[in-house]
Every structure is written in structure tokens, then in C-alpha cells.
Amino acid sequence: MDDRPRMLAGLRRGLIEFLYFGFKNARSCLFVFSFMAIVLLMPRAGLFGIPRYDLLLLVALGIQFWMVYAKLETWDELKAVCLFHMVGFALEAFKVSGSIQSWSYPDFAYTKLFGVPLFAGFMYASVGSYIVQAWRMFDLRIRHHPPYWMAATIALLIYANFFTHHYIGDYRWYLAACALGLYSRTVVIYRPLDRDRQMPLMLGFVLIGFFIWLAENIGTFWGMWRYPNQLGAWSIVHISKWSSWSLLVIMTFTIVASLKHIKSKIHIAEA
Question: Lower CB count within 10 Å: N or C terminus of the chain?
Fold first, then answer.
């Protein structure tokens, strides 16, 4: 977090800034990495007679409260993570319901509700955790943010489409086109080391969505949950899920921007 000016130039500056960019991203993924490590190391049968889904819930709660205790996460950030957990759990409960069955959690757990183990909400919360941490680590600022009512409307429609596409058609590409138009001028300014850099915000959404898609492949490979086409033998998660996760990142970003009260740092586009 030391952003004092450095006497660096050329290739050396580029390499050191890239290194710090990686460090800060890794620090922002502290909850994600910790939780995924436990997911990969946890035996499918659980430990000490406790099912693995229940243990994962306990571990996720422990990591969250440890981060707050160690001042690696603020109470406001924890509140945001809890909100993402609830939003994610509601979506999970719908997706695994008997009439939908988009995927399933095959193992037994005492902490299952509506067929969803309670730890599952933390997989969505981890996306929010990364964004709120990265916002602080990189001193993020947003230039040419669209009017908030428009951003909130798109975020709500994206979330609704995850439910309604089972009944009235999938409009994700229409929503993606609207989001692209809405954020076409939006730039995120970040500081990997001692100088501000910038990139299109939409590119950030797509890149984060890609890495979540990779993590989803790891989760299904380890049998944490299964899509219908993976019940007989594991296969790669369909590439279309990348677009779904990118849209979810847009929704998550909108929530974070509101909860962190950063409107004063955002330039609202003039009519």
C-alpha cells in the first residue's frame, strides 16, 4: 500500500507495476483464495463426522470474522458481503428447486435449506468481497459513470433475468448490449504502485467474469455442485456461463458502488 513516488522508468517500471498489480489483486482475493483452498482440501466425506458442506460454512464464517478482527476487512465491507450472500442464496434456492434443477448439491448437510447448503452463498459473496477489497487496495475511482438510476435499473434487470429466462426467454445479450452502451465511456482509474492507470470498466467486468468461470470449473471438478451434463462424468462448464458471471459482476459492482457511498467520487454524466 506504499504509494510513495519511485524513481523507475521503462521496462523496469512496467515489470514492478505489474508485480504490485498482482500483489494487490492477490490481497483483494484473500477470502476467495482462503475459501477455495479449503474447498479443494476438504475431504468429500467431511471430518470428525461433520459433513463437508457444514464444515465449509463454519470455515467461511471463521475466515470472515478473522478478517474483521485482523482489520483486513471493515464492518461495512462485512455487511456488504452478507448482502451478497443473501442475494446469491436466493438465486441458488431458485436454481436448484424441483421445477428448475439447473444444478444440484449432491451431498448431505445439516445446514441445507431448500436444497442449498448455506455455504453456497459465500461463493457469490466472494465476488463482492473481491470488489470491495480491490476498491480500497487500488484506490479505485470511476470516471464518466452513468446516472445511478440507469445503472441500478440494468442491475435489477440482470438479476431478474436469471430467474425469468426459464419462463419468458433469455435476454442476457440484450442486457449486455444495454450495459455496453451504458458503460461505454466509463473508465476505472486505479493505482498499482505510485501512478494512476486506467482501463475501460467493461473490460474489467469481462475479465473478472472469466476468472470466476475458471473457479466454477474447479468447483464442479471437485464435486461441490454439478450441472445436469456433469452427473455421469465431469465436463468443462459451458462457455456461456462466462457471460452470466460477467453480468453478475456488473450487478455486484453496482451494489458495491452504492454501499460504499462513493457517489461523491463519481462523475455523473451530464445530459
Answer: C
Give the model confidence (pLDDT) of 135-187 as tens digits: 888 888 888 888 888 888 999 999 999 889 888 888 888 999 999 999 989 99
Q: What is the mean pLDDT of residues 227-251?
A: 80
β-pair partners for 190: 197
Residues contacting 212, CB < 8 A, separation 6+: 127, 245, 248, 249
User: Exposed, middle or buried by CB within 10 Å (0-12, 13-18, 19+), for 77?
Assistant: buried
What angle in degrees, to the nearest 10, is found between the helix axes of 172-182 and 240-259? 50
Residues 6+ apart with CB under 8 A from 122: 35, 56, 57, 60, 85, 88
Query: DSSP character for 230?
Result: G
Residues with Cβ < 8 Å from 155, sequence gap 6 or more? 250, 251, 254, 255
Residue 113: C-alpha distances to residues 47, 92, 106, 117, 118 (Å): 21, 10, 13, 6, 7
pLDDT band with cut points at 50, 70 and 90 for residue 188: very high
> 96-136, pLDDT tens digit by residue?
887 777 878 888 889 898 888 888 888 888 888 888 888 88
CA distance 30 to 57: 17
**What pTM value is reported for the model?**
0.81
Average predicted confidence (pLDDT) for the chain? 83
* The three grid cell numbers given for residue 88, joined into one nine-digit string: 446469491
Report how far residue 20's alpha carbon sits from residue 143's, in angstroms, rounded to the nearest whole number: 23
Helices and strands in the chain: count of H runs, count of E runs: 9, 5
Sign of CA dihedral 244, 126, 51, 99: negative
Q: Which residue has the cell 459433513?
A: 51
